[in-house]
Amino acid sequence: MISYRHHVVSLVAVFLALAVGVVLGGGPLSELGRDAAPAAAKASAKARDAKRTASFGDTFATAAATSLYGDRLKDRPVSILTMPGADGQTVSGLAAQIEAAGGRVAGTYDAQPTLVDASQKSLVDTLGSQVMTQLDDGTVTSDAPTYDRIGQLLGLAIAGSPLAADDVSSIRQSLAGAQLMNSPGESARTPLVLVVLGKDIDEAILSGILSGLASKATGVVVADDARSGVDGELKGLRQEPVADDVATVDGADSALGQVTAVLALARSLDVQGGAFGASGSDGAVPLG
C-alpha cells in the first residue's frame, strides 16, 4: 500500500517539475505550436502560467512539509556553510525549513572569497599544510591535494570525527585569520552540513572542498538555485566523483526546493549522494 507520505512526496515531485520546468522554458505549459495569439500575448500568458504554477507548488510544499519530514530531523543539529555569493533569502528559507523539520541550525559558517579564488591557491595550500602538522597524524590525509585538504579542515571545524575542543578552536581561528572561513563563535559541530552555493566558483576547487568536507561529515547536501542545475555549478558538480558523496538539490531559491533540500538532509543520515530537483537525475525529491 502506498503511504500518505509517499503520495504527498510524489505530488511535490510533480509540482517541482512543473514549476521549475516552466520557469526554465521547457515545461509542459509551453505555447509552442499555438499560433493563434500574437507572440507578445503568448509570452505574457506563459509568464503568468509559470508564476501561478510555481506559486501553487511552493504553497503546496510548504503546507505539506511537516507531513513529509515526519520528525526525521527532530532534535538534530545542522550546520550551514555558505559559499561566497550565496543568496541571503535562500539561506534564511533553508534554515526555516530545518526548524520546521524539528531540527535546529547549530551555526552558519561563511566561506570567504579567498577560499575559492584560484589565484590564492598558494595561501590555501600553505595554511592547510601548517594546520595539518599541528594535528595528530592521520587526522587529515597527509597526501591530500590542496583543496581536498582544506575541505577536510573545514569538515573538522564544522562536523568531523571526535576532536579536542582546543584543536577545533585552533582550526577555526586559523581559517578566519587567513580569511578563508568565518565561524559563529563556539557553535557545536554537527554530523549534517548544508552547503549553499554562490556564484562563479571554479568547478575543480568546489569539488575538492566538498570531497574533503564529506569525508568528515555524516551527510552533506549542496543546494543552489534552479538555473545552477541546468548550466551552473550544480550541473558540473553532478558530473564529478564527489557527487557520490554529497547530495545535490537545485531549485533552492523556491520553497519547493528548500523543502526538497531538507528531505535530502534527512536522507543523508543513512544514504549519501543523489541529485534532486527539476534537473536531478534521481528525481525531483528524495522518496526514501
Task: Give a quick precis of the structure.
One of its GO terms (cellular component) is membrane. Pfam families: MctB. The chain is an alpha/beta fold.
Structure description:
The chain has a single domain, classed as 3-Layer(aba) Sandwich (Rossmann fold), CATH 3.40.50. Helix 2 runs parallel beside helix 10, helix 4 crosses helix 5 and helix 5 crosses helix 7. Strands 3-2-1-4-5-6-7 form a seven-stranded mixed sheet, with helices on both faces. The chain is 48% helix and 11% strand. About 4% of the residues have low confidence. It is an alpha/beta fold and 288 residues long. The two termini are 15 Å apart. The protein has ten helices and seven strands. The longest helix has 31 residues. It comes from Nocardioides ginsengisegetis. InterPro entries: MctB. This is Copper transport outer membrane protein, MctB.
First CA to last CA: what distance? 15 Å
H/E element order: HHEHEHHHEEHEHHEHE
Please state the average pLDDT score: 85
How many helices? The count is 10
Number of domains: 1
The major pleated sheet works out as: 7 strands, mixed
Task: Evaluate the radius of gyration.
Answer: 20 Å
- CATH topology type: Rossmann fold
Query: Any idea what the CATH architecture is?
Result: 3-Layer(aba) Sandwich
Top-tier CATH class: Alpha Beta
Categorize the overall geometry.
globular
DSSP strand content: 5-15%
Determine the fraction of residues in helical runs and give it as a percent range.
40-55%
Structural class: alpha/beta
Widest sheet: strand ordering: 3-2-1-4-5-6-7
The total count of strands amounts to: 7
